[in-house]
Design brief:
With 220 residues, the protein is of the alpha/beta class. Helix content is 30%, strand content 20%. Strand 2 and strand 3 form a beta hairpin.
């Protein structure tokens, strides 16, 4: 068994707190939106509204102290070997912790959940697999996926995604010693429903990635 050193344990705890803060901002941003007006809206529009709402929250005079050094970017290009200029991939949302030295980042990809092929889009080559293959978040141990629910309800889509995840364990390189898709156990801040999954990135030799999954309701 391999044990983390005290410094590694501190980094893990810091990263976990950073990720939770980012997910909390997303939940609060969603609550502040006129959600019914976005029931049939395209993904870039919804993401733009979430980022705008998130910025208003962190820049508010009532913002909590931990929000002070959070920067939130909408559709920023990502550096990837061999890709330059407009050919660079663009992540939907990027959180940056502003600080001295290397700045921690948390990348989030989003997909609409509204039709029969939405599960494939969420889990496929333009969704979750972008993290698994190292296109997104190659330098970081965790990332996020958001599902914009525009039909049925979050519980129904959560079941569909869980079933789709199980049938794609191999192509998603699910960690062998992990159960796969499971609840984080987080409580409060509207995060009770957040799920997480673990994926190997052995082919790129960049270590595992933990992906946090959150569904946001726009169908009601």
């Amino acid at each position: 068994m391999i044990f983390a050193s005290p410094s590694e344990q501190q980094q893990i705890l810091y990263r976990s707190a950073f990720v939770r803060n980012c997910m909390t901002i997303i939940v609060r941003s969603h609550v502040a939106l006129n959600r019914s007006s976005l029931k049939t809206t395209e993904e870039p529009h919804i993401t733009g509204e979430i980022v705008k709402s998130a910025r208003q929250i962190v820049e508010s005079e009532y913002a909590e102290p931990w929000m002070e050094h959070l920067e939130i970017l909408d559709d920023p290009p990502q550096d990837l070997r061999g890709r330059r200029g407009k050919s660079r991939p663009r992540i939907d949302i990027e959180f940056v912790q502003t600080m001295h030295g290397r700045r921690p980042r948390f990348h989030v990809e989003s997909k609409r959940l509204y039709r029969s092929d939405s599960v494939s889009e969420y889990l496929g080559p333009s969704g979750l697999q972008m993290f698994v293959d190292g296109t997104y978040a190659s330098e970081w141990p965790s990332a996020g996926m958001i599902g914009y629910v525009q039909s049925d309800d979050c519980s129904t889509w959560l079941g569909r995604l869980a079933d789709g995840f199980i049938s794609r364990r191999t192509q998603l390189a699910v960690c062998a010693d992990q159960p796969g898709w499971e609840a984080t156990g987080w409580t409060g801040d509207g995060l009770d429903s957040v799920q997480n999954s673990c994926h190997e990135r052995a082919a790129m030799n960049i270590g595992r990635i933990q992906v946090f999954h959150l569904l946001l309701d726009f169908a009601a």
